[in-house]
Design a protein that fits this description.
With 789 residues, the protein is of the alpha/beta class. Helix content is 46%, strand content 17%. The strands form 6 sheets. Strands 1, 4, 7, 8, 11, 12, 13, 14, 18 and 19 form a 10-stranded mixed beta sheet that branches. The chain has a 6-stranded parallel beta sheet with strand order 22-21-20-23-24-25, with helices on both faces. β21 (561-566), α21 and β22 (600-604) form a beta-alpha-beta unit. Bound molecules: 1-beta-D-glucopyranosylpyrimidine-2,4(1H,3H)-dione. InterPro entries: Glycg_phsphrylas, Glyco_trans_35, Pyridoxal_P_attach_site.
Length: 789
């Protein structure tokens, strides 16, 4: 059926004419109408002949859906007009939607951009995730410390976009033991005495951009199985509690790994529920299992859902009676795996005893995969210097999930060129030499619909006025903007748009948070999870240096600057929380300093989220992407700010390198060590942060502030941070890169003084940012990994 905007218009107007509503009620009304008129009338056809892709991810971070959905259904302008007609402010209505924060950071946000692009490109591609009752924690600041509160994203009346499909519930089993016996001349395996949990799917519609496509994000909720009465109330409520715990919380940790039983159970719950549903729909549609790889593809988003490999093997062998070889062939052809980090602590391993206890049949299958792999490798021979431990999945008492994901997939990719190359040539070398054709790169991308069209309508409209609308469906066409790079009127308008976006942010911060920032200052922005390797602390050392400079030579700072930070730290990551406290303490002190007022400002915005990012990014002048080279797999905030006309100051890390290749070196501010230098230091070169400290008076002055009482607000005066840099090895090479960072910052400042030259660089960045649309990334996954047409 065709989408019918006329009906939507009529129904919305009628409803609004008949009663007065609060903003939340209008939002709920809009969601209800969209579901009624578009989803119910056009239920996605899971059984169609098209090949279906499933993106399995423990995290999705969509933020708000309302504007995205209206835009994609081509209802945004109609809806705004009607709301205004009935005296509702569209922005207020839209902002009453709570963010769905079912993810921590980049990984989950990428998954959401991918769903948006899958639908926009008219592919049948769906998300499979968990319906955590509490999403990523709400961050409050109290006396400069991060406080974590539960995130009640479901609201009081439930979540407006979801729809429970109770007829599609499945049972997921934990524990028990494996009973093996002969049946019809075949060794058969059966799980007995298991704990059973009901998995109920909630579908959230994902609309394609003005193309009639509706896909879905399915999020699974864990529930106890209601036993027939009579039941013992106490026993039932205990098992209910135990079952529901499974999808209660999102693990608030992105790049480090928590070896918790609950986390393992969550991972299995997702993959078992998802794959059971996919297989049963597939079989009900009358397809044959031998054709599974032609009709279905499954992407494993980092190792968290890697148990899908043994789970599919279990279903094919134990339930559908395929033999091992057949099942393995189908499984590896269907699966593909994306690695998102090389950080050691994030490379998941699970203790053997835990799998044996929680998932005994899955353990047997992993053991068999490992046995066959090792046997095959030994038969073909190890290379010089290699050991079987470089390739085995089970080493001593640990199961290495990245290796399991790799051996069970036909394609393995990293998320930017540098990252994919380190993945292939270092971390997974033993695999890539044996299966070179499996390794590939897919540089990340972002949805230009959400991050440019929706987040920055002023810029988006201006672009269309210059080059037409075609960039909206073909973002590489943003390159046509290059012909305006010397057009003074265009550059002036670009500057005006930035000023308008900065003013909107200023107003919002003033009214909502009582934070005042200098409207005329350069907005220097670092917004992302707080992690040692992302080096928010390096940014702060530069701020402390500038603070000194301002005192010593009042005219030295030629451009007033506001440093904007927003970041959540994992609750168990003590060092990251200390850095948040330090930023907040420094901000307080600098903002009170009369001598530097009007020149230097620092703000830490609490509770960073997708919708907060949508305000900050269009207002950013300088984008801080300053990770230790080799550590940031790709980054995606770098792409968002580039697309919104901010210039990047960054290391040669992740996707920064590809940004520099596109815009050329003079349009990006690069500094610091390259990845191979960092790796050389890590492997064998001697690094002495104290030698650097002893030779650099700027560093001495900046760092001494952490311990000499200048920065108030902490009983131990931030000695721990001081010591981590000077006496505990400075793991992320802040001191090493400090000199080059300060120098490059001052180049950026010089450049900003020449507004026209600055705007020209911004325009060149915007023009090349189309490459970083997730439409390009998804088109590559589709043709090179998923085999979609
Ligand atoms: N990433 O956000 C996470 N969480 C993880 O557990 C592992 C990686 C990030 O994924 C993004 C999407 O690929 C990358 O851009 C980013 O560099 C990486 O840290």
């Amino acid at each position: 059926m065709l989408f019918n905007p006329k009906l939507f218009k009529e129904k919305l107007s009628n409803q609004l004419a008949n009663s007065t509503y609060s903003n939340v009620e209008v939002l709920q009304l809009l969601a209800r109408l969209i579901k009624e008129l578009y989803v119910h009338a056009n239920l996605s056809d899971q059984c169609s002949q098209e090949k279906q892709v499933y993106y399995f991810s423990m995290e999705f971070l969509p933020g708000r859906f309302i504007e995205t959905n209206l835009l994609n259904l081509d209802l945004l302008d109609i809806c705004k007009d009607i709301l205004l007609e009935y005296h509702y402010a569209p922005r207020d209505v839209f902002q009453s939607e709570l963010d769905a924060a079912l993810g921590n950071g980049g990984l989950g946000r990428l998954a959401s951009c991918f769903l948006d692009s899958l639908a926009a490109l008219n592919y049948a591609g769906h998300g499979m995730g968990l319906r955590y009752q509490y999403g990523l924690f709400e961050q409050k600041m109290k006396d400069n410390h991060q406080i974590e509160l539960p995130d009640r994203w479901l609201g009081q009346n439930g979540y407006e976009w979801e729809e429970l499909q109770s007829n599609e519930s499945v049972i997921v089993q934990f524990g028990g033991r494996v009973h093996s016996f002969m049946k019809n001349n075949r060794l058969t395996f059966e799980l007995i005495g298991t704990e059973q949990v009901k998995a109920s799917p909630y579908h959230i519609p994902i609309f394609g951009f003005q193309n009639q496509r509706i896909n879905s994000l399915t999020v699974w909720k864990a529930e106890a199985i209601p036993y027939p009465p009579p039941i013992e109330f106490e026993a039932f409520s205990k098992s209910k509690r135990h079952a529901e715990q499974l999808t209660e919380f999102l693990y608030p940790d992105d790049t480090s790994y928590e070896g918790k039983v609950l986390r393992l159970r969550q991972q299995y719950f997702l993959v078992s529920a998802g794959i059971q549903q996919i297989l049963s729909q597939y079989i009900n549609a009358g397809h044959s299992l031998s054709q599974l790889p032609e009709k279905r593809a499954m992407q494993i988003n980092d190792t968290h859902p890697a148990l899908i490999i043994p789970e599919l093997m279990r279903l094919l062998i134990d339930h559908h009676l395929l033999d091992w070889e057949e099942a393995w062939k189908l499984t590896t052809q269907v699966m593909s795996y994306t690695n998102h980090t090389l950080m050691n602590e994030a490379l998941e391993t699970w203790p053997v005893f835990l799998l044996k206890e929680q998932l005994p049949r899955i353990y047997q299958i992993i053991e068999e995969i490992n046995r066959r792999l090792c046997e095959d490798v030994l038969e073909r021979g190890l290379s010089e210097g290699e050991s079987i431990d470089d390739i085995a999945i089970i080493i001593e008492e640990d199961i290495h999930m990245a290796r399991l994901a790799t051996i069970g997939s036909h394609k393995i990719n990293g998320v930017a060129k540098l990252h994919s190359s380190i993945l292939k040539n270092q971390l997974m070398k033993a695999f890539s030499t044996r299966f070179p054709e499996r390794f590939t790169n897919k540089t990340n991308g972002i949805s230009h619909r959400q991050w440019l069209m929706n987040a920055n309508p002023l810029l988006s409209d201006f672009i269309s006025s210059l080059i037409g609308e075609s960039w909206k469906t073909a973002p590489h066409k943003l390159e046509s903007l290059l012909s305006y790079q010397d057009d003074l009127d265009v550059l002036t308008t670009l500057a005006d748009i930035k000023t308008a976006n900065k003013n909107s942010l200023i107003t919002k911060l003033r009214t909502e948070l009582e934070i005042d920032i200098l409207p005329t200052s350069l907005f220097d922005v670092q917004i992302k999870r707080l992690h040692g390797y992302k080096r928010q602390l390096l940014n702060l050392l530069h701020i402390l240096y500038l603070w000194d400079l301002c005192h010593e030579k009042p005219d030295a700072l030629r451009v007033p600057r506001t440093f904007i930070f927003a970041a959540k730290a994992a609750p168990g990551y003590h060092y990251a929380k200390r850095i948040i406290s330090l930023i907040a303490a420094v901000a307080k002190q600098i903002n009170q300093d009369k001598k530097t007022k009007g020149k230097l400002g620092v703000v830490f915005l609490p509770n960073y989220s997708v919708s907060q990012a949508e305000w900050i990014i269009p207002a950013a002048d300088l984008s801080e992407q300053i990770s230790t080279a080799s550590k940031e797999a790709s980054g995606t905030g770098n792409m968002k700010m580039m697309m919104n006309g901010a210039l990047t100051i960054g290391t040669r890390d992740g996707a920064n390198i590809e940004m520099a290749e596109l815009v050329s070196n003079e349009n990006i501010f690069e500094f610091g060590m390259a990845a191979d230098e960092v790796i050389a230091y890590e492997q064998n070169r001697h690094y002495s942060p104290r030698d650097i400290f002893n030779q650099d008076i700027r560093l001495q002055k900046a760092l001494s502030k952490l311990v000499d009482g200048t920065i108030h607000g902490d009983e131990v005066a931030f000695q721990d941070i001081y010591y981590s840099l000077l006496y505990r090895g400075d793991e992320f090479f802040l001191l090493k890169d400090f000199g080059s960072y300060v120098h490059t910052q001052s180049q950026a400042e010089n450049q900003y003084l020449d507004s026209q030259a600055w705007q020209k660089k911004c325009l060149i960045n915007i023009a090349h940012s189309g490459y970083f649309s997730s439409d390009r990334t998804i088109a590559e996954y589709a043709s090179e990994i998923w085999g979609l047409t």
